[in-house]
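Hey Z.,

So I finally got round to the iron/sulfur cluster thing we talked about over coffee. Here's the setup:
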Amino acid sequence: MTDTDKKKDKRKIRAAKKMREIMTTYYLDAMTARENNKKVAWITSGGPVEPLIAMDIIPVYPENHGAMIGASKMGEELCIKAEEMGYSQDLCSYARTDIACCKVNGGPMGGLPQPDMLICCNNICGTVLKWYEVQARHFNVPLFILDTPICHTDYSREVESYVRRQMDEYIIFLETAVDKKFDHDKMAEVGRLAFQGQKLWQKVLKTTTHKPSPMSAFDAFFFLALIVTLRGTQIAVDFYEELSLEMEERIQTDISIIPHEKYRLLWDNLPVWYQLKWLSQKFSDHNACLVADTYTSAWCSALKYIDENNFLDSMAQAYTRIHLNIGVDQMADQVLDMIRTYDVDGFVMHSNRSCKPYSFGQMDIMNIVRKKTGIPVVMLEADMVDPRSFSLSQTDTRIDAFMEIIKQKEWVR
Amino acid sequence: MIFAGIDIGSITAKAAFIKNDKLMATKVIPTGYNPITAGEKVFSALLEQTGIDPRDIRAIVATGYGRNSVKFANRAMTEIICHGKGAHFLDPRIRGIIDVGGQDSKAIALDRTGQVENFAMNDKCAAGTGRFLEVMAKALEVKLEDLGTISLGSRAPSKISSICTVFAESEVISMIAGQQKREDIIAGIHESTAARVAGLVTKVKLEAPIIMTGGVAKNQGMIKALENRLGIEILVGDYPQENGAIGAAVIASRIHLQKI
Ligand code: SF4
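And the result:
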């Protein structure tokens, strides 16, 4: 091993291996659910998964699968397939790849395990409604829709009771689907674990306030999978406990994720899954570390609304007031808060062709951030899964120019 | 002390020398197929033109889309910073730059000291770039450099509604078939291009005085269309095409002085 190899090795996060193992086991369990007499539910990434766990139903996330498809650079083929089936190129690429996958058993795992039911919560977008309806017809399985009105400014009493009532309907739906009574004690336990898991995830993400940062947003994109898929289980709690300890250890022993952290940046929107490596190298070459992002923090941003001891009742609020379901002003406030917390020098926005709710207010947020903080902001146009909406040379120039603007204060007078 | 800037664009390659903080000379040649040789060619052409010994050049900065292929440069910088420096060097009052080149267009906002504050670039699309005008000139069988003068004769510009270059071309072809006046079609083309570029300008909220750079700045019709669209006067300096190369040379001198 050469010296640089050793140094690189030291920078690697050990928990990554464990995480891969857990995810493999999780997918194997889901794949063999039928043989083990277990039910599978497909659920949207922002959906309330805890009742499923409490009912011993295996949750499967087509969006997580979409991310895997993107990262394994299989997105283009599948998007084209969906377009051949008649879906528009303007449709979210998670939806396109998922719909196409069902037709051709595509993707890195040859498709997802078939669902016994579908759970769709529109707190992330309206796209999921039609997407899940398509899948409900395709698999001929029941679909539960949880409607969470957008909270542009406030969370009203009417919204609370409207969503809360649906939580009861959700439980009845599950009871019918698996023909079993809902276990409220188990639910309380799962709720506690979900709360703890999110607390630990938050703790992990907060370790990057340290300079230099022990991990980057690129690592957060990877480690996110567990808090999404296994939220509410002991496995997730144990894993994030371990991960946060490793981060603490890195801080103590001064191990940073990039060799020379000089600039700290904040990322907005979903990752560009098929260009993670290139992007992280690109920023690292500029001695810039993406220390935080608005995306992965969404899985702990509603913590303040959760009552650990009465999870079921607080669920309505916690699932309604998430990052993509609030007004642009509130989104901007969250961004400003992150800029302060993580002490960043610049803000990188991914204008994501797929994700309209995420990309829609970006111009306004950009202007608010520029006005209130004066830090440089750059907008990169891309798509999280479909590489046809990404131009390498244009992105390259934009990042270079953005970094030059950050650096210009130091060297070009 | 002499410093050089080299700007490799998609259509033309530019070089500029500055000496003791004064612009000395510039050169523009077609980029051609190979950006590597274009850099060498334009550099040696300017050496020849000025009779300067290459050893007297203290530092070189390369810019433009081919910036990383100029291996003999001391550093590569993006066009955005270089255009900012170039414009500020030639006219320190400038606060906004509209640069429309062969394959991209951008709006660059400068602060009072000439530092870039913000910028916006066109999306992955030829609309609103020089390439769009080139395609249209071909369809109309007009020389690219004549588009501007011809369009000034138009009284009722045609309406081009397609954003896509390919569709816009067929739209233009059907206008020709419909015997619309050539000057009106060209003026319409300028208006549609100006609308795209103006979008970038409002995005970054450019403040006056605004200067236009890039090859397209030589097109009077485009300037007029942009001025109408934005309701603001647009200046054109003496070196619209070479502005980026000049800025690169300025940066070369600053880098050299500060030894970074
Ligand atoms: S549109 Fe956005 S929020 Fe909706 S499924 Fe696609 S990526 Fe997720």
